[in-house]
């Protein structure tokens, strides 16, 4: 499973480069400060549309600006995919209009580059359609399922996996948005996931005390990322009760 670490990191660009070298980055349109660093030192990057940041802040995104930004990097060999615009708590029609708008701009030559989002409050029919029409889809936690890892979230995720999986494996690549907790991704057959955990927590001084505390933001980030990278997603979905799941 590819682990995409969200940017930007606290501190200088050189510290971000030290933390990200040889890794994979998730660069948001809402905060692209470390895009150049990520392109230089990472194995690959993915482009996020900034919808989550907009949702949390109550701001809107100009999708035409996002399309221009994506187009400037769509042919870069280091860029894996871009998340198609979405409205996190919107209805299915809202998000279908945005997917249609994407295809009006990018056409068929970018067919496997765009990654649509299935939101967990959306329907089985929508999930079935996206998983059969696209090489890769993303799953977004939303509405009553917005808290990743909650009991209701796991029940909904298992429901989604029963739809997605043929003989235990998804029919398309599945990216889990905000999903880089080993307690989460080891239970499901995700191809990739992202999180801003390392970027958000590497510069919280009070969390890093003691003789062996890492000496800089970049080292703290590396400690967090190394813990995540020690685990892999399962390659097969087994619909077992939670008490039978392996413990990370």
Task: Note down, in words, how this protein is organized.
- The chain is an alpha/beta fold and 248 residues long.
- It has one domain: TIM Barrel (Alpha-Beta Barrel).
- Helices cover 37% and strands 17% of the residues.
- It has a nine-stranded parallel β-sheet. Strands 8-9 form a two-stranded antiparallel ribbon.
- Helix 5 (92-106) links the parallel strand 4 (79-83) and strand 5.
- Helix 1 runs parallel beside helix 10.
- The longest helix has 15 residues, at 92-106.
- It is globular.
Query: How much strand?
Result: 15-25%
From the alpha carbons, calculate the radius of gyration and give it in angstroms. 18 Å
- As laid out across the biggest beta sheet, the strand order is 5-4-3-2-1-11-10-7-6
Distance between the termini: 16 Å
The outline comes out as: globular
Instruction: Report the strand count.
Output: 11
Please write the string of helix (H) and strand (E) elements.
EHEHEHHEHEEHEHEEEHEHH
Biggest β-sheet description? 9 strands, parallel
Q: CATH architecture, please?
A: Alpha-Beta Barrel
CATH class: Alpha Beta
> What is the mean pLDDT?
90
What's the CATH topology label? TIM Barrel
Number of self-contained structural domains = 1
Helix content: 25-40%
Low-confidence stretches: none
